[in-house]
């Protein structure tokens, strides 16, 4: 079975090539797909077979609190899942997420099997009745709540979940169920994806509750080059966010790739 790893990015073609070169050097057998949300002219300069142009204005702003993954999911499904039953899961990362271990797919799949997860994420959990900013923003949103009432198989259709938007692992069956929903109200990805999948009957799991795989995955601050080098040598699997110029080259050197 195969995990398709989608890499969300808007960076220049040169930066995209550099990032993908690291990913493929770390894990040559993995399938990496660039999901490009930047300008179409820059997308044309990316010299890779596995690339998708995501024509989604929510990825470009200005309303970042309504960023969506629906069009990215659709594009990935039609190209890499629909006619390929061997694609059993999607791992969706952002451009500043480093993968430093060749066995990352197996580690994620083993964790999903052990926890019976259909979605795994960083800080993934129920945010109902908390002061989490995404819960506070959407807790009374009539479009979202009406949508969940129509679809939910749970006792309480008003419960809202959240996770970090970077590093979501999703099973094939959960991705297919998400895309079978014919309408998606405007809602921020970090709350919408885990919430919808929960209400469709799938199990959502917090990686940190069961594993240290995401010990060095966080929202902010960004990791510096010295930290990237140290973690590359120490056997760290994932790091996020890594935005420093030269960090990708430093990781390759530290890993002797």
Secondary-structure map with pairings?
Layout: E1 2-9, H1 13-26, E2 31-36, H2 40-44, E3 51-53, H3 70-81, E4 87-94, E5 98-99, H4 104-115, E6 119-121, E7 125-126, H5 133-138, H6 142-151, E8 161-162, E9 168-171, H7 172-180, H8 189-199, E10 204-206, H9 207-210, H10 225-234, E11 238-239, H11 247-254
Parallel strand pairs: 1-2, 1-4, 2-3, 6-10
Antiparallel strand pairs: 4-9, 5-11, 6-9, 7-8
Give a written overview of the molecule.
This protein is an alpha/beta fold. It has one domain (2-251): Alpha-Beta Complex (Spore Coat Polysaccharide Biosynthesis Protein SpsA, Chain A). 39% of the residues lie in helices and 17% in strands. It contains 11 helices and 11 strands. A 7-stranded mixed β-sheet has the order 3-2-1-4-9-6-10, with helices on both faces. A two-stranded antiparallel ribbon has the order 5-11. A two-stranded antiparallel ribbon has the order 7-8. α2 links the parallel β2 (31-36) and β3. The radius of gyration is 18 Å and the shape is globular. The model has no long low-confidence stretch (mean pLDDT 97).
């Amino acid at each position: 079975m195969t995990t398709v790893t989608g890499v969300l990015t808007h960076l220049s073609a040169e930066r995209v090539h550099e990032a993908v070169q690291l990913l493929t050097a770390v894990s040559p057998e993995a399938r990496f797909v660039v999901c490009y949300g930047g300008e179409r002219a820059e997308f044309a300069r990316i010299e890779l077979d596995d690339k998708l142009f995501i024509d989604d204005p929510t990825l470009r702003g200005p309303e970042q609190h309504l960023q969506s993954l629906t069009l990215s999911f659709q594009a990935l499904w039609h190209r890499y899942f629909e006619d390929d039953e061997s694609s059993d899961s999607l791992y969706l990362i952002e451009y500043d997420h480093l993968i430093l271990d060749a066995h990352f797919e197996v580690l994620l799949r083993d964790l999903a099997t052990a926890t019976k997860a259909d979605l795994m994420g960083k800080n993934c959990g129920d945010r109902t009745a908390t002061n989490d900013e995404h819960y506070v923003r959407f807790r009374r949103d009539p479009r979202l709540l009406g949508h969940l009432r129509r679809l939910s198989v749970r006792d309480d259709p008003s419960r809202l979940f959240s996770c970090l938007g970077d590093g979501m692992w999703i099973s094939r069956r959960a991705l297919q169920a998400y895309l079978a929903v014919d309408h998606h109200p405007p809602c921020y990805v970090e709350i919408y994806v885990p919430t919808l999948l929960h209400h469709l009957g799938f199990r959502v799991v917090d990686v940190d509750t069961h594993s240290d795989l995401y010990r060095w995955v966080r929202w902010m601050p960004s990791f510096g080059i010295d930290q990237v080098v140290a973690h590359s040598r120490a056997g760290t699997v994932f790091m996020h966010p890594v935005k420093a110029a030269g960090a990708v080259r430093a990781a390759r050197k530290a890993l002797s790739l």
